[in-house]
Design brief:
Number of helices: 3
Strand content: over 45%
Radius of gyration: 20 Å
Strand order of the largest sheet: 1-2-3-4-5-6-8-9-10-11-12-13
CATH class: Mainly Beta
CATH superfamily: Outer membrane protein
CATH topology: Lipocalin
CATH architecture: Beta Barrel
Number of domains: 1
Largest sheet: 12 strands, antiparallel, barrel
Shape: globular
Length: about 300
């Protein structure tokens, strides 16, 4: 939490906008951790850091934005000890990635987003060393089973998110159906769900809900600020997950691996605030078991700050 607050303050100071200028660029930082919920639970998807740069692209027709994101995610079992070996109910894995994404907004207030990413799983991802470092700094007990983590391998993936339409029966409420898919040697999955927003918000192409407040032109916003609650339930079918199974054809070494459950349910509930150059989002995320061997489900808190310039 301290690291998030310090970096958030740094981004806010760095990105102070010029008065009257279109804010074409955005820098955002996201941190995700189950420890933020103060439940003394440190397991499964236990930590994530993502830094993203977004820019409004030149387009003669509908709005288009590009983003480049670097991130690291860490996964661990519920049991910090390695004895008994069956206590590793979810494989140890670090996942480091670099992702490019393009989002095109459609005339019907929907959008189409595609992404391409390169990454690394295993010891070379830095997940083990990062977790040990901040556990040592905060005097937390270390996980003992990193010798059994997913083996080193390079990953490549393509992703797609499609919102065919946005249904808005009133000025204070909207619902956006979502279809998702990922394909590569890291993740093969598909999902469907919806995003619901209640409050004061912009159209999708200018909303902080999608990190889309960057623009090439002044005077495009209908609201002075956005302030709304959001909820996103979704069902995901997963055929392959390298953070559980390792990368195909990579030598498993002494890694303890697991097979994914075919269906995973996820629910996010959060709040978003945006005004001028700054946006902030906070969301509670619940996820059902990813693999049959997991003792329980997981939940964590996601915090994001965005600054445009």
């Amino acid at each position: 939490m301290r690291c998030f607050l310090l970096l958030a303050l740094f981004i806010a100071i760095l990105c102070l906008p010029k008065q009257g200028s279109a804010q074409r660029n955005e820098l955002s930082f996201t941190t995700e951790n189950d420890a933020f919920l103060l439940q003394y639970h440190d397991a499964y998807y236990t930590n994530g850091f993502m830094l993203q740069y977004t820019r409004a692209a030149k387009s003669k027709q509908n709005k288009k934005i590009h983003s480049l994101e670097i991130g690291q995610k860490i996964f661990t079992p519920v049991n910090r000890e390695i004895i008994p070996i069956k206590g590793v109910d979810r494989p140890y894995c670090g996942y480091l990635f670099l992702k490019f994404q393009e989002t095109r907004f459609l005339k019907n207030n929907g959008f189409l987003s595609w992404s391409a990413s390169l990454g690394m799983v295993g010891k070379e991802s830095g997940g083990e060393s990062l977790q040990n470092s901040y556990h040592s700094f905060f005097k937390y007990k270390k996980f003992q089973g990193w010798d059994y983590q997913v083996n080193n391998a390079i990953t490549a993936n393509l992703g797609l998110v499609f919102a065919p339409i946005s249904w808005q029966p009133s000025q204070k409420f909207k619902a956006i159906p979502l279809i998702k898919a990922n394909w590569g040697n890291a993740f093969v999955n598909a999902g469907a769900g919806a995003m619901f927003a209640l409050g004061v918000f912009e159209k999708n192409q200018h909303s902080a809900l999608w990190n889309a407040r960057v623009t090439n032109e002044d005077g495009k916003f209908e609201q002075e600020k956005e302030w709304f609650l959001f909820a996103q339930p979704e069902w995901n079918w997963q055929q392959y997950n390298a953070t559980l199974q390792g990368v195909k054809n990579a030598p498993p070494g002494n890694a303890i691996l697991a097979n994914p459950l075919p269906w995973v349910f996820q629910q996010s509930i959060g709040i978003c605030y945006a005004k001028k150059a700054i946006s902030f989002k906070a969301a509670w995320v619940y996820q059902s078991k990813e693999t049959k061997s997991q003792v329980g489900t997981q939940q964590y808190l996601s915090l994001q700050i965005n600054c445009r310039f």
